Amino acid sequence: MDGSKKVRFRQRFGFIYTSMQPRLDSFPTYVYRGGDDPKFFAGKTVYSDLKLIMIYGGVDLKILELSRFRWYGGVNIVFGLAKMTYARDAHPVIIEEDVVNEGLGGFMFRTSFEYSFARRFDVFAVLSKSSLVGQKWSPFYGHYNYGIGLSYLLIPDFE
Amino acid sequence: MKQFFLVMIAVALVAGCKKVEKDVYNYFPKVKTVGAVVQPDGSIRLTGELLSSGAGEMRGVGFCMDTLPNPRMEDNQQICDTLFGNSFSTLYVDLDATRKYYFRTWAVNEWGYAYGEDILVDNISLDTSIIPCHPAPSTMSMTDFGTVPIYSVTNLEYTTLQWECSAYTNNGMFHLTFYKWPTTGVYEITEFTSISSKEKRFVNLEFSQTYAKAGKLYINQISPTLIEVTICEAMLPKFNGKRYLTARFTVKT
Q1: Is residue B10's pLDDT more than 70?
Q2: Confidence band for B67, pLDDT divided at 50, 70 and 90
Q3: Does residue B207 have a pLDDT over 50?
Q4: Which residues on chain B are in Cβ contact (under 8 Å) with A41?
Q5: Is 70 exceeded by the pLDDT of residue B176?
């Protein structure tokens, strides 16, 4: 490989589908009824069928390259949809169940470490942080993703 | 378009700064039921402590109570508006001394709520040392009349949001009207016969078609079917002055 021909930026596009699990079987939520006799009513909310479907695109900057090892940092623009079902029960004030679909938009910051162990084959470890803005249900979605994987380069950019 | 993306980046960075709690229960407040102390008049002073407000803005603290363990937040709820440091307190009155009660604290923030531990109270009683007069059992004393025995007391009867009984002596009878079920406690004697729901610790005492204007009445629940009544210095107006009635007797319920 000729160092003068190394590509420092690369474009990334992708699709994310995440099926999430709530951290509690039921969340201790409540309802407040104001007026002359204000009162808090204990209840619970059960979330299910939580899904995130997003597409993203952006650029990665190669921060470091040592022999077969490469370190990238990058940012992506993300758009997508969040879907979930919830059942809220604060008897006798409110009992409801609904499905919420919400549009999302924001950014995903990512860093990855990659190692080429064969021509066109890399192993990688990636950590990303998504910061998204929702339309109605939750103003902010922020979450981390991390993982390891194996990639096959259809069009190697080193040649 | 450029401005839109700048705004999006700013919002995303702000959102990205929001701390994620490793333990999901850290989002919710933590609260402790500190104590329940029976007061001399049979009421109960509850105290609680807010250990943590959790990861969100506090919305309220208070107590709940029931005759079964683990009362729910809305059961006989009392909201405490003031925190003294991290402590808060309230008073439960008009409790039936023949029953046991479970109390616990609760706290709510923007994410949800949490309870403190249950405290059982089964020793409600009137501290008789707070009664300033000491008439003999089943007697009535009145200015000018001296002390006479009470030879008969009717059972406590319920009539349209009132509980009534009458006590008979050789010098006449007097009639009591309660505006709540007479549980252990101290009651104000009043001549007013229209008592609002917030003034239920008042009682009417009628003697010879005259209502007592002032005085105190002490109830001590001896058993689920028997209460002891002590009346101290019930002031009865008369033609050219006033006289005082003092009495002590038991009533079947």
Answers
A1: no
A2: very high
A3: yes
A4: 73-74
A5: yes
Please classify residue A51 by burial: count the beta carbons closer than 10 Å to its beta carbon, then call 0-12 exposed, 13-18 middle and 19+ buried.
Answer: middle
First-residue to last-residue Cα distance in chain B: 80
Give me the interface pTM, i.e. the ipTM. 0.82
Which of A33, A39, A40, A132 has the highest number of chain B CBs within 10 A, making it the mutation to test binding with B? A40
Residue A26 is which amino acid? S
Interface test with A, best of B73, B105, B196 (most A CBs within 10 A): B73
Supply the pTM of this predicted model: 0.78
Over residues A13-66, the pLDDT tens digits come to 989 898 888 889 999 999 999 998 899 999 999 999 989 899 999 999 999 999
- B15 vs A30: CB contact, 8 Å cut-off? no
Q: What is the pLDDT of residues A104-140, one digit of tens each?
A: 899 999 999 999 988 889 999 999 988 888 876 666 6
DSSP for B4-34, please give it.
HHHHHHHHHHHHHTSPPPSSGGGGS-EEEEE
d(CA A158, CA A155): 9
CB-CB contact of B118 with B103 (8 Å)? yes
Instruction: Write the DSSP string, A27-63.
Output: B--EEEE-SSS-EEEE-EEEEEEEEEEEEEEEEEEEE
Chain B: which residues have CB within 8 Å of chain A?
Answer: 5, 8-9, 11-16, 18, 20, 24, 28, 59-60, 62, 72-74, 77, 79, 106, 108, 112-114
pLDDT for position B198: 61
**A85 close to A94: Cβ distance less than 8 angstroms:** no
Q: How far is CA B134 from CA B94, B199, B243, in A?
A: 23, 27, 18
B79: which residues sit within 8 A by CB, 6+ positions away? Answer: A38, A39, A40, B60, B61, B62
State the Cα angle at B230 between B227 and B232, rounded to 5°.
160
pLDDT score of B7: 47
H or E stretch including B114? strand B113-115
* Residues B16, A30: C-beta atoms closer than 8 Å: no
Judged by CB atoms closer than 8 Å, whether chains meet at B8 and A133 is answered as yes
Confidence class for position A155, pLDDT limits 50, 70, 90: confident
B198 to each of A28, A99, B95, B190, B216, how far by Cα in Å? 33, 44, 15, 15, 18
